[in-house]
Amino acid sequence: MTPGMLGNLGLGVAVLFSVAGLMAAVTAWIARDARYVWVARRAALVAFLGTLAAFGALEWALLTDDFSILYTARNHTSASPTWVKFATLWAALEGSILLWAMLQTFYTWLAGRKMRDYWTSPVALGTLFVIQLFFLINVLFVINPFTPVPNPPADGPGPNPLLQNHWMMAVHPILMYLGFVGLSVPFAYAVAAMVTRRYQTWVAETKWWLIFAWGFLTAAIFAGGWWSYEVLGWGGYWAWDPVENASFIPWLLATAFVHTAMVQERRGLFRSWNFALVTLAFAATVFGTFLTRSGVIESVHAFAGGPVGPIFLGFLLVILAVGFALLGRVSSEVRDVGAVNLWSREGLLLLGALVFVVMAFVVILGTLFPLLVEAFNGAKVSVGAPFFNQLFVPLGYAMLVLMALGPLLPWRKADPETLRVVVWMAIALVLGTGAGLALGWTLWVSLTVGLFLFNLVALAWLIWNPIARRSRALGGVRAGMSAAGWSRRRYGGYLVHFAVALAALAIAFSQSYRLDVQKTLEIGESWQVAGRTITVHALRAVEESHRYSVIADVEVSGLGTLHPRLNYYRTSRTPFASPAVAYTLGKDYYLVLQAFDQQNSQWVTLRLVVTPLVLWLWVSAILMIIGTAMILWPAGRRAARTSAAGEVTA
């Protein structure tokens, strides 16, 4: 059996059993017979195994240099290293959608195993089967990577050179798809809840799925920023590129839902908000896929235009129509009764959700505006970083304020003890901002420092207060700390909040205080800049199987020898810069080889970018992931009972 035969067989099996699973789910709903849910679950497993076989078949073709199928002939070269061959599967349109389909069937199978509610399970499973059928049918009939090539070439062009420049491309897309596809499960639960009119229990069931997807999206966004920082040679990690924005929009909407879901779970409020946010978050993943695969935008991240653009646009409209039609149908039943006190935990969580929704709207507006202008009058306009930064700075400040106050305030209304803590937080804000201004920092950097301390005081009180109360009750700090050890999930949330505040601090400094200079140096010449001595020792060439590289050996005093390089790939006449970065606690020293003496190798042109606190941005990402893992980590029965009791008294 060839890879092409196995791939098509696997996809055919997946489509067949997805249809069977959908029919079983529909029958279970109509007949009210749970036995058909069992059948749907087994069909989901077979569909997953079918797509897994197709995924393995494409990897088989790539790793064995089989150019008899269309995907390898267009996107693969035998000269690639093994890790590049493996990652080539998602380097182009057809393979990336196959990866999505495989993960979608995996989530459907996994979610089916976890569903326990007799009423909602058939509808939720049926929704997931419809979603996976959409992707499977596209892969099998519209953009089949296993289409045979009549006259197979001896070799192919290989993937986009930018995708070969750093190992992170073997990781970043996987994380992104795990986040994107994971949002389909909360959407399926929301559809089931609206169809069955069971408006409360779905939130508790789906919250963990959403946090799981949110964690992967968070890791993917930061991994993409690091990849951009290490590969593109421009000295930055975020450029408000349309494809970057496409991943940011569902993250913002999912973050809003995480917070409003807490209110519904605790107080039964914001039910219509949660249905809308889940629908928008999942729709945003399809919107991002449409942007990157339709050819309507130009980006280093985007795929070439293909036939799936209009199809994905239609699917996006269907998702929005179904979600909001169902919400309109039940809107009178899920409407909140009574007013919400804004000076309470639920009030601030709602305001925080509104901030995230406005952020998402700003990103959508800035991303689509150039496309709309060009569509209506043919003019080409651009919306760059100044537009986004001007709007995101005040929104970011609002987020930091609400992030500190939200967990601090009790449910329903604030008490005097909380107000005293808020006073100390305000003092920290004023002192931090004033100290920054006294040191000559800009107003917005100084205010970010103040808001960081504002959050730090709030978190310190949130962590210490329960320990102190238990210490008084049990007689000793050690006993109090031991009794408070149950709160892994709560402390995980605190860690995520601290990481967000730390990321804001790193972003503020790295965006405000950035030295960007360049100089042409003779071999052996030194350059005094940014308190460092930079000396070029040598210029050398390295031949690899898939590329040719020119490397400069540059010594930076106190940091050792760095090796910025220019990589040449046979499919492109343009060299691709691979910067060398020296990370320190205070500043990053980022060297790019801009040009060199191609005749005699006697000089090089170097670009140096010195940026403060970038390392702490990556540290904040790690802390967010750790905090998410703490939230998701299962608690023992005793811990869960203690946690529930703690929530009642909080």
Percentage of residues in helical conformation: 55-70%
Order of helices and strands: HHHHHHHHHHHHHHHHHHEEEEEEEEEEHH
β content, as a range?
5-15%
Beginning-to-end CA distance, first to last residue: 62 Å
Helix tally equals: 20
What is the number of E strands?
10
Largest sheet: 6 strands, antiparallel
- The residue ranges in which pLDDT falls below 50 over 5 or more consecutive positions are 638-650
Q: Give the CA-based shape.
A: globular
**Roughly what is the average pLDDT, rounded to an integer?**
90
| Rg (C-alpha, Å) | 27 Å
* Class by SSE composition: alpha+beta
Task: Give the topology.
Blueprint: H1 3-31, H2 35-63, H3 70-75, H4 82-87, H5 93-114, H6 121-142, H7 172-182, H8 184-196, H9 201-231, H10 242-267, H11 271-293, H12 308-334, H13 345-377, H14 385-405, H15 416-438, H16 443-474, H17 477-483, H18 488-512, E1 515-522, E2 526-529, E3 532-543, E4 548-556, E5 560-562, E6 565-568, E7 576-578, E8 580-583, E9 587-596, E10 603-612, H19 614-632, H20 637-649
Antiparallel strand pairs: 1-10, 2-3, 3-4, 4-5, 4-6, 6-7, 8-9, 9-10
Would you summarize the structure shown here?
The chain has 650 residues and is α+β, with helices and mostly antiparallel strands. The chain has helices at 3-31, 35-63, 70-75, 82-87, 93-114, 121-142, 172-182, 184-196, 201-231, 242-267, 271-293, 308-334, 345-377, 385-405, 416-438, 443-474, 477-483, 488-512, 614-632, 637-649; strands spanning 515-522, 526-529, 532-543, 548-556, 560-562, 565-568, 576-578, 580-583, 587-596, 603-612.
